[in-house]
């Protein structure tokens, strides 16, 4: 049996995965070329195979767990779509800003939209024969995300600005002659090392004459800029590394690029972000022990956090006994887990009869809360005849948060977490309370409008929050 067949067999043993999706994946791997297996977007795969996105995402996560695919966490420049860095572990992701050598600008390293998660076939399963230095098309395909579809106008401008692709073998040199024309500044870009150097011509204070040398090391270009007093300069670039390197020679024109992008925006295909992955219940369950750094500290711009609590469980233990009460509480946890999973969320932890869960959008959080209430009502119909009833209390808040390691598990920290917990404390049994930050989203209003809920406004002094907080109790609209 081949290694691929062995991995597919492992997937077939997972009851949560649909056999038809496993067959689609096996057929895709068998027919795909090397480029198609290099950086796979699971949402694109789902669309091309007319499959459910959630099911396909679970399939790829399971596939990574059995060693069929590897995760890649790609730092994507929001301007050019370039992959500034590609990491194989989450704790390698930059915690603050990251720099793009193509645009010579930095971007905030947020898990919401700048960290693209893709899948590549595991080298032990199939070694890809991809040479990014084969030609310019291969170089761009390797170093730029396919999820950023630039306009024809921007592609044409890039071709105009790009002069050469230099490929320099190990311990070798190449010469390039730069001449002053419409542009007096040139840029050498090494995407592999995410470094670049600007070369200015016809500068009276230039340290170079008609020639100069630029050493290239494993860390890239040591200097940011050099200048020449001549109108033409022959530059010799020496590769001091053990590998062949590629360099783009261009004439930088960021103002013109930004102008074209503003007039002809880049289309961004839906892709799996690190935030979405962390809010995926399957990922949380399969990767409970990730051996991540204790210093992990990653930024999320917008995270929706839910806290729940259960009313009536203590009395039920006293009246019905441990076995019945425990069974009912566990059924309540199953309902909550199913609702969280159904609406693209993840349970971060349980605390007694309470849970903390996170969602990528407020609409998903609200939808999960409403689904929980519906299912708990059905459960109560069953147990009410025995004289028992439980009540769920839910609070939701949206805002920035930090992903951190706590007690060897991925957790979240920040005021957003604190506020969500306090808002839940305002709720009585059967109530959902939300903050203004949750309510302000159009998608939230669409969900509550469809459910015919009204927002009953209150102002609360939440512990640990300096100012008065506007909160809303969701209740059924009259009539």
Query: How far apart are the termini?
Result: 65 Å
Please indicate the count of domains. 3
Shape: elongated
Main β-sheet description: 8 strands, mixed
Query: Based on DSSP secondary structure assignment, what is the total number of beta strands?
Result: 24
Describe the structure.
- This protein has 479 residues and is an alpha+beta fold.
- It has three domains: 3-130, no CATH class; 153-265, no CATH class; 282-476, Alpha-Beta Plaits (2-Layer Sandwich).
- It has helices at 3-12, 19-31, 42-48, 53-65, 136-143, 152-161, 254-263, 274-278, 281-286, 313-320, 322-342, 362-383, 415-426, 436-439, 442-450, and strands at residues 69-76, 83-87, 97-100, 105-108, 115-121, 148-149, 162-168, 173-179, 185-190, 195-200, 211-217, 220-221, 225-227, 232-239, 245-250, 267-268, 297-311, 345-351, 354-359, 391-406, 409-413, 431-435, 453-460, 469-476.
Question: Quick summary of this structure?
Answer:
The protein has 479 residues and is an alpha+beta fold. The chain has 15 helices and 24 strands.
Which key terms come to mind for this protein?
single chain; about 475 residues; alpha+beta; Alpha-Beta Plaits; 8-stranded mixed β-sheet; elongated
SSE layout and pairing:
Elements: H1 3-12, H2 19-31, H3 42-48, H4 53-65, E1 69-76, E2 83-87, E3 97-100, E4 105-108, E5 115-121, H5 136-143, E6 148-149, H6 152-161, E7 162-168, E8 173-179, E9 185-190, E10 195-200, E11 211-217, E12 220-221, E13 225-227, E14 232-239, E15 245-250, H7 254-263, E16 267-268, H8 274-278, H9 281-286, E17 297-311, H10 313-320, H11 322-342, E18 345-351, E19 354-359, H12 362-383, E20 391-406, E21 409-413, H13 415-426, E22 431-435, H14 436-439, H15 442-450, E23 453-460, E24 469-476
Parallel strand pairs: 10-13, 11-14, 20-22
Antiparallel strand pairs: 1-2, 1-5, 3-4, 6-16, 7-15, 8-14, 9-10, 9-15, 11-12, 17-19, 17-20, 18-19, 20-21, 22-24, 23-24
């Amino acid at each position: 049996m081949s290694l691929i067949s062995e991995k597919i067999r492992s997937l077939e043993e997972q009851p949560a995965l649909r056999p038809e999706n496993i067959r689609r994946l096996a057929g895709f791997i068998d027919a795909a070329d090397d480029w198609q297996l290099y950086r796979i977007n699971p949402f694109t795969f789902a669309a091309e195979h007319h499959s459910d996105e959630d099911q396909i995402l679970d399939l790829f996560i399971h596939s990574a767990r059995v060693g069929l695919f590897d995760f890649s966490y790609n730092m994507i420049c929001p301007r050019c779509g370039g992959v500034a860095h590609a990491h194989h572990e989450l704790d390698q992701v930059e915690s603050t800003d990251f720099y793009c050598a193509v645009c010579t600008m930095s971007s905030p390293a947020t898990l919401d939209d700048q960290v693209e998660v893709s899948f590549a076939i595991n080298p032990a399963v199939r070694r890809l024969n991809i040479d990014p230095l084969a030609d310019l098309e291969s170089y761009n395909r390797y170093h730029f995300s396919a999820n950023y579809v630039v306009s024809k106008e921007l592609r044409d401008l890039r071709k105009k600005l790009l002069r050469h692709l230099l490929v320099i073998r190990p311990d070798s040199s190449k010469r390039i002659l730069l001449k002053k024309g419409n542009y007096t500044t040139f840029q050498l870009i090494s995407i592999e090392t995410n470094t670049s150097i600007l070369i200015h011509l016809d500068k009276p204070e230039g340290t170079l004459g008609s020639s100069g040398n630029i050493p290239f090391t494993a860390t890239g270009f040591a200097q940011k800029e050099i200048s020449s007093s001549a109108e033409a300069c022959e530059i010799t670039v020496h590769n001091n590394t053990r590998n062949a390197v590629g360099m783009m020679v261009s004439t930088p024109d960021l103002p013109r690029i930004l102008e074209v992008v503003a007039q002809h925006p880049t289309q961004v295909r839906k892709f799996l972000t690190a935030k979405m992955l962390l809010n995926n219940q399957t990922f949380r369950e399969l990767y409970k022990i990730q051996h991540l750094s204790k210093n992990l500290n990653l930024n999320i711009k917008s995270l929706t956090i839910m806290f729940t609590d259960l009313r009536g469980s203590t009395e039920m233990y006293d009246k019905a006994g441990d076995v019945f009460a425990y069974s009912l509480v566990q059924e309540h946890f199953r309902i909550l887990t199913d609702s969280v999973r159904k609406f693209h969320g993840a349970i971060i932890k349980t605390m007694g009869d309470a849970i903390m869960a996170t969602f990528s959008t407020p609409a998903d959080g609200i939808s999960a809360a409403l689904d929980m209430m519906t299912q708990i009502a059905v459960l109560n119909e069953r147990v009410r005849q025995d004289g028992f009833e439980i009540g769920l209390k839910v609070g939701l808040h949206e805002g920035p948060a930090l992903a951190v390691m706590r007690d060897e598990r991925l957790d979240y920290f920040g005021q957003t977490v604190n506020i969500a917990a306090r808002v839940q404390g305002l709720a009585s049994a059967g109530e959902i309370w939300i903050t203004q930050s949750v309510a302000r989203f159009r998608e939230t209003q669409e969900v509550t409008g469809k459910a015919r809920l009204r927002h009953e406004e209150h102002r609360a002094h939440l512990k640990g929050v300096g100012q008065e907080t506007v909160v809303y109790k969701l209740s059924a609209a009259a009539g």
